[in-house]
Amino acid sequence: MPNTVGGEYVEQATAEVAWALAARDALVEVAGRYGTTIKYGELAELIQYRTGIETTTVLANWIGRVLGRVASMCHGQGEPSLTSLVVHSDDGFVGVGYDAALEVFGHRPARDPVERENRAAVDRLECYKRYAPDVPPDAQPKLTAVAATFRVSASRASRTYAAEHPKVCPKCHLVLPLTGVCDNCD
After folding, report:
1. For residue 123, how far is the Cα from the chain centroid?
2. What DSSP assignment string belongs to 154-180?
3. How far apart are CA 18 and CA 48, in angstroms?
4. pTM
5. Which residues of the chain form beta strands (DSSP E)?
6. CB-based contacts of 108, cutoff 8 Å, min separation 6
7. Under a CB-based contact definition with an 8 Å cutoff, are residues 25 and 19 in contact?
8. What is the mean pLDDT of each run of 10 residues along the chain (186 residues)?
């Protein structure tokens, strides 16, 4: 059974709603500490712990939908994009799925990973300004410490971006098959 509470099966949609609510609250806590972020795996463990709903499903197969729900909640409540605080452990960048959050907030998807991360840095600063008590008055958007040391050249990123950037369903935020039609929604 992929999703369980105390050994009892939980529907995927029900789990994702619970996880999204827990994720939003956890991300507000992260935003309350200026300059902090959380890794995808850490957030996944935290929201499973807080909700009591555990899953054996691979992280990449569900976290994007949860963060898509969080982005929609934030936009609907007039909050900044809290999902900008969730980063990869290896490079400190937000994932490709952050393009869905950009779209929810009325922005076009990023052209490449560098543009996406720069936009996320702006959004993270807005989160800190809203929730952290210690944001310097002259604070500027900045990359995460890991991303700042992970020197991705813009030319390399641009060349590989087209091959690495999958199209994502705007409803459920799953990667679309080559047909372009979502198997989950259509």
Report:
1. 12
2. HHHHHHHHHHH---B-TTT-PBPPTTS
3. 9
4. 0.79
5. 3-5, 8-9, 38-39, 54-55, 86-87
6. 102
7. no
8. 77 94 98 96 96 92 95 97 95 92 94 91 97 96 79 45 58 67 72
In the block, tokens 């619970």 appear at 18
Non-local (6+) Cβ contacts of 99 within 8 A are 109, 110, 116, 165, 168
Residue 163's pLDDT is 46
* d(C-alpha 32, C-alpha 75), whole Å: 18
Beta strands 86-87 and 54-55 are unpaired
pLDDT score of 185: 75
Q: Are 127 and 139 in contact (CB under 8 A)?
A: no
Q: Sort residue 58 into left (φ over 0), alpha (ψ -120 to 50) or beta.
A: beta
Strand pairing category for 8-9 and 38-39: unpaired
**What's CA 67's distance to the chain center, in Å?**
5
Tokens of 130: 């809203």
